[in-house]
User: Fold this.
Amino acid sequence: MTTDDLAIIFKEYAIENEITCMQAFEISEKYDISKKAIARYCNSRDPRVKIRGCQLGCFK
Assistant:
């Protein structure tokens, strides 16, 4: 999975500035992408995509 692939997925989900924990888990499961890869992608954007509503502390 490339950065471009993740950008397309985020666009399909209409994710621009924020993603919820539940959305990140759903994308991870549906596309077989590690949660860590999603977090790295979010942190690499400028401005970065903030992950909200995480109950487990998986994303920081």
About this structure: Helices lie at 3-12, 21-31, 35-44. DSSP finds three helices and two strands in the chain. The beta strands are 18-20, 50-52. The first helix runs from residue 3 to 12.
